[in-house]
Design goal:
The chain is α+β, with helices and mostly antiparallel strands. The chain folds into 2 domains: 71 residues; 75 residues, no CATH class. A 3-stranded antiparallel sheet has the order 1-2-3. Strands 4-5-6 form a 3-stranded antiparallel sheet, with no helix packed on it. The longest helix has 46 residues. It is rod-shaped. The N and C termini lie far apart (67 Å). The C terminus is likely disordered.
């Protein structure tokens, strides 16, 4: 794909040829002017092609930026509850089945947790890492600082 800079470089060719045509017209040499006009036409077509390529690339980059923005917005719309990530709608309500928090942290991918009834009491299991998850099983320990504050009071 030709970039915009290459397109601009191509544009310099027709400008030089226009000066050549102007000189040929001044000399009243129709053959030289005709040859220069044919070269100009070819250069303008190359320029048009380069600009179309640049436009396509810009469109792809804009789509990619939109996707990144959408992904960034999705990342902020989650709630973590004991290893389960729940997606939140615009009102802050949970939407759909939860995802595995551990897989999201480790692999930066969202894997759905499936509803199960495990002997440990957990009510979900990750389809990817197979870890038991959920609010009915043993809860995750709170951060050390929070436990320390509770003990020291």
């Amino acid at each position: 794909m030709i970039e915009i800079a290459a397109g601009l470089a191509i544009a310099n060719g027709p400008l030089a040829l226009i000066e050549k045509v102007t000189g040929a017209i001044g000399k009243k040499d129709p053959n030289e002017a005709k040859e220069a006009l044919i070269e100009i036409r070819g250069s303008v077509l190359d320029l048009k092609s380069a600009l179309q390529d640049a436009l396509e690339r810009e469109s792809l980059l804009r789509d990619e930026i939109s996707e990144f923005k959408r992904d960034a917005k999705v990342e902020t719309n989650f709630e973590d509850e004991n290893g389960l990530l729940y997606q939140l709608d615009s009102d802050g309500k949970r939407v759909g089945a939860p995802y595995c928090h551990q897989c999201y942290v480790d692999q930066d991918k969202l894997f759905r947790a499936e509803k199960v009834d495990l002997e440990s009491g957990h009510d979900y299991r990750c389809r990817n890492c197979k870890n038991p998850l959920g609010t009915k099983g043993p809860v995750r320990k709170s951060p050390l600082g929070v436990r320390y504050e509770a003990i020291s009071k």
